[in-house]
Design a protein that fits this description.
The protein is an alpha/beta fold. It has helices spanning 15-26, 44-57, 70-75, 84-91, 107-125, 157-160, 165-174, 182-185, 199-208, 210-222, 233-248, 256-267, and strands at residues 4-10, 33-38, 62-65, 128-133, 154-155. The structure holds iron/sulfur cluster. The site of iron/sulfur cluster has 12 residues, from helix 5.
Length: 268
């Protein structure tokens, strides 16, 4: 016998999935579950936004979380590694925790997002045919090429409605959602501490979110993996400070003089 369909909206709290959810509800589309995977690493304004969405739609959002939090996994968790001997040789001790994520080792995506989400959906699949709504904007069609976004049970309403990222943001603004200005700073909003974010976004974090930057520095001081290939968090702060000084003096920050001064500052 065919299972009954169950309609799940993948909700990150960002502009695209917020616009998708609001428009689906406005059009009277069936939504059985609004699913948010909480990494614990969202900007505080994002958590406020999620509460505002719940109030606006007068519905509960289902929140799933990993059993162990990011800080424990990154800094403390004992991990069996194949390269145990090399790491001990390199660092002089056996590193604890996964450390910062890297381009080839996004352990946190797996542990904090994919696994809790899958665990939740696996249970539902026993009873239902899950139809999942994913907030890919029309100008992100390239992401559709990724296998994970091509599953038969996935739907992409924003692409069907030809809503671009800018349209989604405007749609949310028109309904009174502002994220307290997060999208005035960032084009995309994700985990505030992600080492894979651009220097531009890290510069904004340093300048406008000092409390989060202090936490970033605290974690960086405690972990064994480099934050970025060329920079620790402290070195990044030194770079951003130097940039400010150069800009104040009307000097460019993309030439040899700047990078020589930076080298000196970092080694000093
Ligand atoms: S956005 Fe960055 S920090 Fe967050 S889960 Fe993905 S890789 Fe990890």
């Amino acid at each position: 016998m065919d299972k009954q369909e169950y309609h799940v909206v993948s909700f990150s709290g960002g502009k695209d999935s917020t616009a998708m959810l609001l428009k689906m509800l406005e059009l009277g589309m069936k939504v059985d579950c609004i699913l948010f995977c909480d990494t614990g690493l969202e900007f505080p304004d994002m958590y406020t936004h999620i509460e505002q969405v719940e109030k606006h739609i007068n519905r509960k959002i289902t929140i799933v979380k990993a059993k162990e939090d990011y800080e424990y996994l990154m800094l403390e968790k004992p991990i069996k590694r194949k390269q145990e001997a090399q790491l001990t040789l390199r660092y002089g001790f056996q590193p604890k925790g996964y450390g910062w994520a890297g381009p080839k080792m996004r352990w946190c995506t797996e542990k904090l997002k994919s696994q809790p989400r899958e665990r939740f959906l696996r249970e539902l699949r026993k009873e239902y045919d899950i139809i999942e709504y994913v907030g890919l904007a029309a100008d992100e069609g390239y992401r559709l090429k990724r296998l994970v976004n091509q599953r038969e049970n996935h739907r992409h309403p924003l692409i069907d409605w030809e809503m671009t990222e800018a349209d989604c943001l405007q749609f949310c603004y028109e309904r009174g959602f502002t994220w307290n200005g997060l999208y005035k700073y960032f084009d995309r909003v994700s985990c505030w501490c992600c080492p894979l974010q651009s220097l531009t976004d890290l510069r904004i974090l340093y300048k406008h979110f000092p409390d989060l930057w202090a936490k970033l520095k605290e974690w960086d001081d405690k972990t064994w993996r480099d934050f970025k290939t060329d920079y620790s968090v402290a070195k990044l702060a030194a770079r951003f400070d130097l940039e400010e000084e150069f800009i104040r003096d009307g000097r460019p920050i993309n030439n040899r003089v700047f990078f020589d001064a930076l080298k000196e500052r970092m080694n000093g």
